Amino acid sequence: MLRGSCLCGGVAYRAEGPVHHASHCYCTMCQKQHGAGAGSYANVGSAGFAIERGAELVVEYASSGQGRRGFCRVCGSTLFWRSTASPESIAVTLGTLEPPYDGPVERELFTETKPAWLPVK
Ligand SMILES: [Zn+2]
Ligand SMILES: [Zn+2]
Protein backbone atom coordinates (compact mmCIF):
# COMPACT_ATOMS: atom_id res chain seq x y z
CA MET A 1 0.00 0.00 0.00
CA LEU A 2 1.31 3.42 -0.97
CA ARG A 3 0.10 6.61 0.65
CA GLY A 4 0.65 10.17 -0.36
CA SER A 5 -0.40 13.71 0.38
CA CYS A 6 0.06 17.23 -0.94
CA LEU A 7 2.13 20.04 0.53
CA CYS A 8 -0.75 21.67 2.43
CA GLY A 9 -2.04 18.33 3.65
CA GLY A 10 -5.52 18.96 2.29
CA VAL A 11 -5.35 16.02 -0.09
CA ALA A 12 -4.40 12.48 0.88
CA TYR A 13 -4.55 9.42 -1.35
CA ARG A 14 -3.74 5.76 -1.29
CA ALA A 15 -2.60 3.45 -4.04
CA GLU A 16 -2.13 -0.29 -3.98
CA GLY A 17 1.04 -1.82 -5.28
CA PRO A 18 2.76 -3.32 -6.96
CA VAL A 19 4.47 -0.42 -8.68
CA HIS A 20 4.65 -1.51 -12.32
CA HIS A 21 7.51 0.84 -12.92
CA ALA A 22 8.79 4.18 -11.71
CA SER A 23 10.11 6.85 -14.02
CA HIS A 24 11.59 10.28 -14.38
CA CYS A 25 9.86 12.08 -17.24
CA TYR A 26 11.71 14.98 -18.86
CA CYS A 27 8.98 16.00 -21.28
CA THR A 28 8.50 19.74 -21.49
CA MET A 29 4.98 19.48 -20.06
CA CYS A 30 6.26 17.77 -16.91
CA GLN A 31 8.99 20.40 -16.60
CA LYS A 32 6.40 23.17 -16.77
CA GLN A 33 3.91 21.60 -14.43
CA HIS A 34 6.41 20.52 -11.80
CA GLY A 35 8.57 23.61 -12.21
CA ALA A 36 11.48 21.21 -12.17
CA GLY A 37 13.76 19.16 -14.39
CA ALA A 38 11.46 16.16 -14.41
CA GLY A 39 8.21 14.73 -13.26
CA SER A 40 8.81 11.58 -11.24
CA TYR A 41 6.14 8.93 -11.07
CA ALA A 42 5.21 5.47 -9.88
CA ASN A 43 2.80 3.63 -12.15
CA VAL A 44 0.15 1.65 -10.30
CA GLY A 45 -3.20 0.10 -11.07
CA SER A 46 -5.97 2.67 -11.00
CA ALA A 47 -8.38 0.20 -9.37
CA GLY A 48 -6.42 0.52 -6.13
CA PHE A 49 -6.12 4.30 -6.26
CA ALA A 50 -8.40 6.38 -4.08
CA ILE A 51 -8.41 9.93 -2.82
CA GLU A 52 -9.05 9.58 0.90
CA ARG A 53 -9.23 13.23 1.83
CA GLY A 54 -9.74 16.50 -0.03
CA ALA A 55 -11.15 15.19 -3.29
CA GLU A 56 -12.86 18.58 -3.67
CA LEU A 57 -9.41 20.21 -3.78
CA VAL A 58 -8.12 18.09 -6.66
CA VAL A 59 -8.19 19.77 -10.04
CA GLU A 60 -7.36 17.96 -13.26
CA TYR A 61 -5.70 19.81 -16.09
CA ALA A 62 -6.04 18.31 -19.56
CA SER A 63 -2.50 18.81 -20.85
CA SER A 64 -3.20 16.90 -24.05
CA GLY A 65 -6.06 15.10 -25.71
CA GLN A 66 -5.66 12.13 -23.39
CA GLY A 67 -3.37 13.31 -20.58
CA ARG A 68 -4.84 14.47 -17.28
CA ARG A 69 -2.69 16.02 -14.57
CA GLY A 70 -4.14 16.10 -11.07
CA PHE A 71 -2.98 18.72 -8.60
CA CYS A 72 -4.08 20.38 -5.36
CA ARG A 73 -5.75 23.70 -6.05
CA VAL A 74 -4.65 25.10 -2.67
CA CYS A 75 -0.91 24.37 -2.65
CA GLY A 76 -0.27 23.33 -6.25
CA SER A 77 1.29 19.96 -5.47
CA THR A 78 1.25 17.67 -8.48
CA LEU A 79 -0.43 14.44 -7.46
CA PHE A 80 -0.93 12.18 -10.46
CA TRP A 81 -0.90 11.79 -14.21
CA ARG A 82 -3.34 9.58 -16.03
CA SER A 83 -4.38 8.91 -19.60
CA THR A 84 -7.95 8.49 -20.70
CA ALA A 85 -6.58 6.07 -23.32
CA SER A 86 -5.29 3.67 -20.64
CA PRO A 87 -7.62 4.03 -17.67
CA GLU A 88 -6.32 0.82 -16.04
CA SER A 89 -3.26 2.59 -14.68
CA ILE A 90 -2.37 5.86 -13.01
CA ALA A 91 1.00 7.46 -12.27
CA VAL A 92 1.31 8.99 -8.82
CA THR A 93 4.08 11.50 -8.15
CA LEU A 94 7.04 10.08 -6.27
CA GLY A 95 7.56 13.28 -4.30
CA THR A 96 4.14 13.14 -2.65
CA LEU A 97 4.52 9.60 -1.29
CA GLU A 98 4.74 9.03 2.45
CA PRO A 99 6.84 7.31 3.56
CA PRO A 100 9.30 8.22 0.81
CA TYR A 101 9.46 5.86 -2.15
CA ASP A 102 12.38 3.48 -1.73
CA GLY A 103 11.96 1.29 -4.79
CA PRO A 104 13.91 1.42 -8.02
CA VAL A 105 13.35 3.95 -10.81
CA GLU A 106 13.74 1.98 -14.01
CA ARG A 107 12.81 4.43 -16.72
CA GLU A 108 13.76 7.83 -18.02
CA LEU A 109 11.27 9.26 -20.50
CA PHE A 110 11.77 12.00 -23.09
CA THR A 111 15.51 12.18 -22.43
CA GLU A 112 15.85 14.25 -25.61
CA THR A 113 14.39 17.20 -23.69
CA LYS A 114 16.25 16.51 -20.44
CA PRO A 115 17.38 19.99 -19.36
CA ALA A 116 21.06 20.79 -19.74
CA TRP A 117 21.07 22.40 -16.30
CA LEU A 118 19.80 19.34 -14.47
CA PRO A 119 23.04 17.55 -13.62
CA VAL A 120 25.06 19.26 -10.91
CA LYS A 121 28.46 20.13 -12.31
ZN1 LIG B 1 -2.54 20.90 -1.02
ZN1 LIG C 1 6.30 14.09 -18.83
TrEMBL record:
SUPFAM superfamilies (UniProt xref): Mss4-like (SSF51316)
Domain CENP-V/GFA: 2-118
Presence of keyword Metal-binding: yes
PROSITE patterns per record: CENP_V_GFA
Pfam families referenced in this protein's UniProt entry, alphabetically: GFA
Origin: domain of life: Bacteria
Entries under InterPro entries matching the protein: CENP-V/GFA, Mss4-like_sf
Alphabetic keyword roster: Lyase, Metal-binding, Zinc
Any one GO molecular function term: carbon-sulfur lyase activity
Family membership noted in the UniProt record: Belongs to the Gfa family.
Protein name as annotated: GFA family protein
Organism: Pseudoduganella dura
